[in-house]
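User: Could you write out the 3D structure of this protein bound to heme C? I've included everything you need below.
Assistant: Certainly. Input first, then the structure.
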Amino acid sequence: MPNKLKISVFLTLLLTSTSSIIYAQQELEVSMKRGKDIYSTNCTVCHMANGEGITGAFPPLAKSDYLMEDTKRAALNIINGVSGEMKVNGISYYGAMGAYGALSNQDIADVLNYIRNSWENKGNIVEVKTIKALRK
Ligand code: HEC
């Protein structure tokens, strides 16, 4: 390949990859914004606005090892509810959380994107199709 062509191929690849990274970042921010509203309406009472929960009663989402360890499990816990022992950041919880399956797939993806990327959490974007597949 002539050098000029090599350079232009390289530049094209560079441009398309950076623009798709920027696009994904914007998509995450838009989803988190919607997720914040869903969180405030449905989750704040127990997990608190700052995601800290109430030690011993409602587990934290902020810096939660349990939450960040398994996205699909987190989604299923939100869709179906969860009860019984759960260890979060070394503390055992024996609580029960109701099901939020009435929320749309978009809502669940959005709230997950919000909680997985707030309060110093950092996670990959969760897509609507992932939630849809989990419902089956
Ligand atoms: C009525 C209180 C209550 C509400 C409201 C509530 N949760 Fe929970 N949540 C809990 C309890 C209690 C547990 C732990 C259940 C257990 O011990 O098995 C839990 C566990 C979790 C977990 C896994 C544990 C962790 O810390 O990572 C996630 C994720 C979660 N909730 C997200 C949500 C989201 C998102 C909403 C809103 C859509 C929500 N919760 C609303 C009480 C609540």
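The first helix runs from residue 3 to 42.
User: Perfect, thank you.
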